[in-house]
Amino acid sequence: SDTDDVVLKIEADESNDAEGDNPMIWLAQDGELVNFKIGLEGGGNHAYLNWGNATDKDLLLQNNGTEKFRFTGDGRLGIGTASPRSKFHIEKTAYDYDTTVTDDDLHLLVKATENSTAGDAVSIGFAQSSNTDPGAVGAKISHVVSGSFSAGDLAFSTNANTSSGGDQTTEKMRITSAGNVGIGTTSPGTP
């Protein structure tokens, strides 16, 4: 090894000429009736966790014996719950709405990485699956920045275009940072 930090190294293709040979850790129990694999595949392009022959088994991440998230065998991700009821399920205690809110209080936070710039937006999109255009957006809710410290408006947009894909949504309603509500306008003047 070329570093002192490596404690365990498993290498299946040291010379880079057998791309079908991929390193793997295989844990098995009951004569492989239950087995779990951790490894690389696709010539080292993908890492994976695989339950092997077992069906409907959950993958847990724990910290100091406390479960932090669970990925179920049927494809549901639960954070704060051992029994996720949808594809993505978050459970957390409520916070006092009348007090100052911090990032840690929120159940879900969608946050841009850069500083606030007027006109930028952070959005949540909604779409139905489409074989002809998998990128089609049917509707979105956006936080449109109007000033520093995340000051901004909440915009609601929908897509009435049935002839082309992508994000063809147009804004239909806006609630400004001043509390004004506009339908059919992006600059409502009265609350």
Task: Output the keywords.
191 residues, 12 strands, five-stranded antiparallel beta sheet, four-stranded mixed beta sheet, mainly beta
Structure commentary:
There is one protein chain. This protein is mostly beta strands and 191 residues long. The chain contains no helices and 12 strands. The strands form 3 sheets. A 5-stranded antiparallel β-sheet has the order 8-9-10-11-12, with no helix packed on it. It has a 4-stranded mixed β-sheet with strand order 4-5-6-7, with no helix packed on it. A hairpin with a 4-residue loop joins strand 2 and strand 3. The relative contact order is 0.07.
What are the SSEs and their pairings?
Layout: E1 24-29, E2 34-41, E3 46-50, E4 59-63, E5 66-71, E6 77-79, E7 88-90, E8 121-126, E9 139-145, E10 152-158, E11 170-175, E12 181-183
How helical, in percent, are the residues?
A: under 10%
Instruction: Give a count of the beta strands, DSSP E runs of length 2 or more.
Output: 12
**What's the end-to-end separation, in Å?**
67 Å
| Uncertain regions spanning at least 5 consecutive residues | none
Helix-and-strand structural type: mainly beta
Strand line-up of the largest beta sheet: 8-9-10-11-12
Number of helices: 0
Which value, in Å, is the CA radius of gyration?
24 Å
Question: Shape from CA axes?
Answer: elongated
Strand count, sense and barrel status of the largest sheet are: 5 strands, antiparallel
Q: How much is the average pLDDT?
A: 82
Order of helices and strands: EEEEEEEEEEEE
Report the β-strand fraction as a percent range: 25-35%
Kindly report the oligomeric state of this protein: single chain
